[in-house]
Amino acid sequence: MRVGIDCRTILNPGYGEQAGIGHYTYFLIKNLLKVDKENEYVLFFDNLISKEAAEKLIEENKNASVKFFPFHLYKHYLPFWYSHILVAAAIGREKLDVYHSPAYSFPLMYSGKTVVTVHDLAIFKHPEWFPKKFVSQFFSTKISVPQSLKKANKIIAVSENTKKDIQEIFKIPGEKIKVIYEGVEKRIFPQRGEETCGVENQICEIDLKSKYGLRDDYILFLGTIEPRKNILALIKAFLDLAKSDKKIKQNYQLVIAGAKGWKYENIFAEINRTKKISKEIVKYIGYVPAKDKFSLIRFATCFVFPSFYEGFGLPVLEALSLGVPTITSNVSSLPEVAGEAAILINPNKIDEISKALKKVLADQNLRKELSKKGLAQAKKFSWEKCAKETIKVYESVL
To answer: I need a labelling partner for 49 at 20 to 30 A (CA). Which of 57, 271, 314, 332 fits?
Structure first.
């Protein structure tokens, strides 16, 4: 079997830091090449990445090759012609048995067997959460996404909730959709108290807290700063708790980490208002690189992710995999990921978030129990399993 995969979302394959589709594509390919030595893989890139960086992804795997889509500049001047005709011709020349697009759509002029992965349909369900310009640009694909999903031989959904959304929004029959969960990176840390400074991709607890100006005990949110993450409700819930409990006000800090997305002005206005209560009781530390991210999660007393909607919810899985007590929403895909290993709250009810925080912070035994359950729940998700199930999908369309 000769399989082609669109890898254009991977901007930095050497580090695998790219969130969302790029993250998925990177780890899927690494594990496909790890578990499958029989089938051939043709990985398609464009000139946004160097040949050396692209080839680094395949390492010594002789059953993989790198191809670059030609005439990338035409994408800007003739986007439809480039995306649906020129790219289709380039794929067709490779004589593939199946072509996999990890990003919702594929060239409509391509007539071969196809598989498409769908991650997150928030923009279709709630366009009000996004900037008008972004929505306008996205809906330029209003034809290609629905047509690709109807034309595809098989669709991979990253959660049961995403499968349900595909069925409801695009009227796709359920038997055409296969749910394959994403995996989680396995991180092995020395025990707390052991020396970790200087170890590659790690940072010791003291240095981490010094670098970001953190208190000894902190509650963590990590994700893009945008409306659907429900950060305003989290801040208000934490402040309500801090006002009623002096110990929490004195000892704990709410840390907001993540890149700025859009429509975040109200969030930062609220963070600034908290300074009147206590300096840096709520602290925004910006985007955190991968080398610090997992340590930041691991050293948190509690991880809170009260999002209104997620296609999968990787930050929750990452927190569980590190044994961090977690609070998350009882909507969209998040209960699938969390199982019984996290405290689930209604994201529309600030008092529920506040009560859950109080419960976790006040009970050390509960934190230990959640930590143990989180580690067990995370073991159900692996990139190797994702890769093996994806190969079965490829085989099913032949």
So the answer is: 314
